[in-house]
Write a structure and sequence with these properties.
Layout (H helix, E strand, L loop, with lengths): L13 H14 L3 H33 L4 H14 L1
Length: 82
């Protein structure tokens, strides 16, 4: 069976490397685990933002919102109904 991971090499600014190293030491885990967890969190965050941007575009299209003025108009109309 083949490998299920890939080795990635990249450079870090020295201060970020030192912070990563210190965190790994305090948590008693390898630096690679710290970097893997950080990258997983970043990718998950980007995926959530992509979904939110897609939802925003779909909602704006459905409501006919093309500008800030359209949004202000919609908010004003909603407040009148309250």
């Amino acid at each position: 069976m083949g490998r299920t991971t890939k080795v990635v090499n990249f450079s870090l600014p020295l201060d970020l490397y030192k912070k990563t190293e210190n965190l790994a030491r305090r948590r008693k885990v390898p630096k690679s685990q710290i970097l893997k967890e950080a990258l997983e969190a970043y990718v998950a965050s980007e995926e959530r933002w992509e979904k939110l941007r897609a939802w925003r575009a779909e909602t704006a299209e459905a409501l006919g919102l093309r500008s800030e003025g359209d949004i202000e108009r919609l908010v004003h109309e909603y407040r009148k109904e309250l």
